[in-house]
Design a protein that fits this description.
Elements lengths: L1 E4 L4 E4 L10 E4 L3 H13 L4 E5 L20 E2 L7 H19 L3 E5 L2 H9 L1 H4 L3 E2 L11 H4 L1 H10 L14 H9 L4 E3 L9 H5 L6 E3 L1
Parallel strand pairs: 3-4, 3-6, 4-5, 6-7
Antiparallel strand pairs: 1-2, 8-9
């Protein structure tokens, strides 16, 4: 275990890190995925920084029982204050880029944290390598959002199930008059708090007959 004093906080890093072997930043939003990511990094001797946030009623966090969980950095819950959570990530990224003299790869563990990073791509880009284009230089909301992805597939002549996008109450009847049943109803994109699942008994999609 090694630690260095950086500009604003005493940032501790676990693992064999160096400018040639900088850490990953791993965001915990799905505990199972996050635990697997930590284990994989540890087995590959990749140093990492766990970034966590909590909310009322969250947990238990089994990842915190792992021998690989150490020196985590807590940020504001994006569901409560997304701007403050991004400010926290920017502050962390600033510390890391000053120390390692390069951008650090940040990896989400669920769609919720993925959408947070994609929505605030430009604010985070100076400090992090973010999932998106192959050169890490632009977000890919054009394919993450299911309705936009469907438009791309249709434009390319690739067969996919008939897809309708509903953006207002006025469109509901139009879709009902056009859709074939049974069909699947699901959000075009996830938000930061899984509101669709929370309102539908934790289901990710609903079959309509």
């Amino acid at each position: 275990q090694q630690h260095r004093k950086t500009v604003g906080i005493r940032l501790k890093l676990t693992g064999n890190f160096s400018p040639e072997n900088p850490p990953l930043v791993l965001i915990r939003s799905n505990d199972t995925s996050f635990l697997g990511m930590m284990r994989s990094c540890a087995m590959a001797n990749i140093p990492f920084i766990p970034v966590t946030f909590t909310w009322e009623g969250s947990g238990p966090w089994f990842s915190e029982l792992s021998k690989y969980y150490a020196n985590s950095v807590q940020i504001t819950n994006p569901g409560d204050n997304p701007d403050k959570s991004i400010e926290d990530l920017v502050n962390l990224g600033s510390e890391l880029t000053q120390y390692f003299q390069q951008r650090i790869m940040i990896v989400p563990s669920a769609d919720t944290s993925l959408m947070l990073l994609q929505d605030h791509f430009k604010s985070l880009e100076p400090y992090y390598l973010l999932m998106g284009s192959r050169n890490f230089n632009q977000p890919r909301l054009d394919v993450i959002c299911k309705n936009k992805f469907a438009e791309k597939m249709n434009a390319a002549g690739i067969p996919i199930p008939q897809t309708f996008s509903c953006n207002s109450l006025q469109q509901i009847q139009i879709i009902l008059d056009s859709v074939n049943f049974p069909c699947i109803y699901k959000p075009a994109r996830n938000d930061y708090v899984r509101s669709f699942q929370n309102n539908h008994k934790m289901l990710k999609a609903i079959e309509c007959k």
